[in-house]
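Dig into what follows:

_____
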Amino acid sequence: MPEVPPPESLPRMAVGADGAASLRAQLDSRIVFGEPMRASQPRALAGGWLRLEEPRVLDFPQLAMFCDAWPPAVAQHRAMGERAPGGMPTVDLTIHFRSELPADARPDDFYLAVFRSQTLRNGFAEEDGEIWTRGGRLLAHSRQLAMVIARD
């Protein structure tokens, strides 16, 4: 798990500020890596702390949703140019659950989501994701293929 500041020390991501889906309103997100939908970073790395806006103990469907709940890492990379993509619908998403859910999980726990992209070709981007507990346990690893839709 990368060393990152605790979620309580970070501001909440503004809902709607990243132009993302309405899912964002259901989450309390704290940015650690990148600036959502701004092509300004030397690497395609994005992520931060996540939890549901309405507290609930983590279950596997929620964990799976966290694997697809962050603005795309490739939108961070300078190769995208001045403008963010118009959209990035998921074509394929594979999730590997790497650990049992924490037995001592609380409804207000945060989970660290880290997403990296190494490939952007022919209108498609690949992204690898990790979801970690605050204590450093890897809960899930994801691999996603998304279509990059250019803005007009």
